[in-house]
Amino acid sequence: MQFGHFDDSSKEYVITTPRTPLPWINYLGTQDFFSLISNTAGGYSFYKDAKLLRLTRYRYNNCPLDNGGRYYYIKDGNTVWNPGWQPTQTELDAYSCRHGLGYTVISGSKNKIEAELTAFVPVHDPCEINYLVIRNTGSSPRHLDIFSFVEFCLWNAADDSSNFQRNFSTGEVEVEGSTIYHKTEYRERRNHYAVYSVNKKIEGFDTSRDAFIGLYNGFSNPEAVLAGESRNSIAHGWAPVGSHHLKADLNPGEATSFIFVLGYCENPEDQKFEAPGIINKAPARRLLEKYQTDLQVKNALFELKHYWTGLLSSYTVETGDEKLDRLVNVWNQYQCMVTFNMSRSASYFESGLGRGMGFRDSCQDLLGFVHLIPSRARERILDIASTQFEDGSTYHQYQPLTKKGNADIGSGFNDDPLWLVASTAAYIRETGDFSILDEKCAFNSDPSKAVPLMEHLRRSIRFTRTHLGPHGLPQIGRADWNDCLNLNCFSTQPGESFQTFGPSEGPVAESVFIAAMFVKYGKEYAELCDALHLSEEASDIRKAVKEMNEAVQTSGWDGKWFVRAYDAYSRPVGSHVNDEGQIYIEPQGMCVMAGIGLDNGKAEEALKSVEERLDTHFGIVLLTPAYTSYHVELGEISSYPPGYKENAGIFCHNNPWIVCAETILGHGNRAFQVFRKTCPVYLEEISEIHRTEPYAYCQMVAGKDAPTFGEGKNSWLTGTAAWTFTAISQYILGIQPTLHGLKIDPCIPDTVEGYTVNRTFRNVRYHIRVENPSHVQKGVISVTVNGKLMEGNIIPPVTGKSEADVVVQMG
């Protein structure tokens, strides 16, 4: 069952009913100001940091769903409705929501009145524009009342949702003409405030939620709207809101427009305050004057669309598969940019209160967007590196506003350091910019301890090498990629109390997954050393990589697949000797991607076991059999019911690792089969089962052991976006950036006769045509560049030209 359809010509997803299985959302914003908006206009806005600078409130886990957003109430006599259906839920005569790239258009009509709301964040300004057009399509004049509504958050979203004894006394607002200023915290010299304004003269306003809604009413039936007039309330403490009352008298066929601006304003650091609580309105006035006319708004929207068109032109394909083309050309890359901006901080499943930017998360997200904006990738790498500790370990998360590590979460996730190597190597392969390795980066955000980025990478590698367990495998610490596999948390003996041991205090758990990472990214680090003429260090690293490879094949091989880990008692996890959790997906994908077992059949055997034991109709589950009881020695992973999340759910993030692994073995048919199963565009027709957006990947799909097998959860902010784009663009379509040029190495289904890729690489536009007349799955017999036959399949960087024509013949 579908709830909408793709409009490929407009790069939009068109939702045709407000009653989607879950709120289907979009992200507005490209730089510092961001908003989440659902198909019924729910959501919230923030500046840079979803926790510390939240402009508007949002209620998770509420009933009805999706409570709170930017709402426009239209009062037509005794009928009150919203163009997005929520929150009045008045039945509409027509409805649609068009989610585009950085903008959303919600349209509704009732009793021959049409209303269209266009919401977007301009490319260069910290505000959300709501452009509301109302048209009379009937044959008689109409007299309408329009009420806008947003509910302000008291900036710190965590404090706002908990510290009521204080918050109920701190809300402050000011109204000047058609502009409402939310200035809570300005008295504390926080130097910022929010503004909510409309470009027309207003009939009235409200800034007190109690006055506007009423003490015992809800968003669906505000007292002021039902009465048809604002209360002109000024909030003092309690819950500050912003609401404008406007009138529209429309003749038949006539339309009118309103421009609402929700903006963030702050003064320069050196600018003095006039007095506590008195705001400097100059920044707001400068912002608002840019968006007073329809033409100004339309030009800003055009600029936004042009921005996304230019961005996504970096990598485009024509494959003959309509769904694959729309995924690669638009929605997957768009999601990669969103996850780069947000990490895992703010979605309809992440409240934005705690996580901030993930160290591992941001490094992986970079893999999917580095080709789009390399300069921002460079900036992000340097930010991430500066939160690292001197011994090479890292904070697991950091706050995007302060760039400080999150002490509440701390460190000890021992895969984190190696992801910095992965992201930096990917950036250099894409750009050829080795100068980033000379950039000074702090340790633990302390500028006095800054060293070149290359030293940070060196310490990442050294940390893994110096934290090995009894099998010669890396210590897992608190966890590796799977945060829920906590193998150093255990009872010392059956019946004894729960304890947690650090690596120097007691038994040590080990990770085969991190071992595989070390093999893969150790090789990439050695290549960087080669390029820098550090031959002795490169040789030393390759020796360590070889030893780790041997440790994996000796202690990490279970007979038919790779073991997942060893717990604190040195007992295998993910082995046939276990009653439950006998095989995990992660080491199978990463070990094969690292090249472990390619020469002795172990790689083939491992992937065969994945297909036979882990694969399902909706994707590959994380492990099997599912854990049916809680295991203290395994930690959080067994706290989930069978089939959900890490306990045998289909974790979409690591399904692409199997895709990549299958291509390394030349299995093009199998690789694409796995790729399709978790792809949202291929699941659109079963949206009543999948539930999450058909244009965005979700983190997890309920596995075969779950009562809701096939149900998607936690959409948008997931490493799935970056890894699936990497899998399709570099491993299946086979266009791979390397230190020495662009490598062409496709691995495709044998039914595919050919395809084209347009790919910008180091300022050159490559037009690549891949031909497969022999219908093979893998293998390149010739590469021609601008009519010249190349040796091998790596195209050295083209110089002196802005474009290159490439023909690749498989065979």
UniProtKB/TrEMBL annotation:
SMART domains: CBM_X. The keyword Transmembrane helix does not apply. Pfam families: GH94_b-supersand, Glyco_hydro_94. GO terms for biological process: carbohydrate metabolic process. Gene3D superfamilies: 1.50.10.10, Glycoside hydrolase, family 65, N-terminal domain, Maltose phosphorylase, domain 3, mpn423 like domain. SUPFAM superfamilies: Galactose mutarotase-like (SSF74650), Six-hairpin glycosidases (SSF48208). One of its GO terms (molecular function) is glycosyltransferase activity. It comes from the Bacteria. InterPro entries: 6-hairpin_glycosidase_sf, 6hp_glycosidase-like_sf, Gal_mutarotase_sf_dom, GH65_N, GH94_catalytic, GH94_Enzymes, GH94N_CBP, Glyco_hydrolase_94_b-supersand. Residues 307-734 form the Glycosyl hydrolase 94 catalytic domain. Residues 11-292 form the Glycosyl hydrolase 94 supersandwich domain. Keywords: Glycosyltransferase, Transferase. This is Glycosyl transferase.
